[in-house]
Amino acid sequence: MTPDIRPFDAALGAEVLGVDLSKALDDETFAAIENAWNEHSVLLFREQSIDEARHLAFSRRFGELETHVLDQYLHPEHPEILIVSNVMDGDRHVGIYDAGRYWHTDLSYMAAPSRGSLLYAIEVPHGEDGEPLGDTLFASTSAAYDALSGSMKGRIADLRAEFSLANRHAKLVADGDADAELEDRHHEKAPPVTHPIARTHPVTGRKSIYVNEGQTARILGLPGDEARDLLEALCAHCARPEFVYRHKWRVGDLLMWDNIPTQHLAVRDYALPRRRYLHRTTLKGAPPR
Ligand code: SIN
What domains appear along the chain, each with residue ranges and CATH number? Predict the structure, then answer.
């Protein structure tokens, strides 16, 4: 297999053609995919048919996997798979139904946030017109960083921000959108952490903006109003249309993204009985620098 990498007409992302993820990949094919991932940040593989074991095996080629802190949404037989879904079993959500409710990067509230995620679509909701619903938007935070003025780059160079799972949960509660309280075990596994807000990619060396709407509680070292205004301005800047790719899901899509130079948002324009059901693996990462 020689993968054919076709960049999207966007600030990030590419489709990978000519790869069947249901089969083990040789080292050369894998290296081409890994290089493309570092270059384009988001990769799409269409028309895949993979079971949990193949999803896990492909994901593990990139590194160790996380067992997500929100353990109530883990696949019962494969705890390294997070179920992303609006499907209910009685009055229980079978998966995390609000995973992308706000712009975020996965696990930015952990001391060592995730390096990347691989999301595989098993059921996709559609509207009356047959168009898919529940799109996911990806923003290139490295393109957003590059577009900052020199003085803004200087201003944020040494700043840090606090990130927390509790902050994300408080936003969901305020928006009337949380189905349960966080438990003590969630708080213990994910206490608030701080990270630099201008982050350098360990492979490409590119800088990116590392704050997000959902999980960044506050920027540190500035007066309250100034810190809040800067956080809002940086989040709004990252979400500008010229930095964004919008993914329309099809069953059988595997989409993988680099959590360092991107953030993403899931569009909530569907509800039961329209079902959305996906499996996500989450790669471990290192503390941001
Ligand atoms: C996620 O944030 O990992 C899930 C995104 C989605 O549901 O599209």
Answer: 4-283 (3.60.130.10)
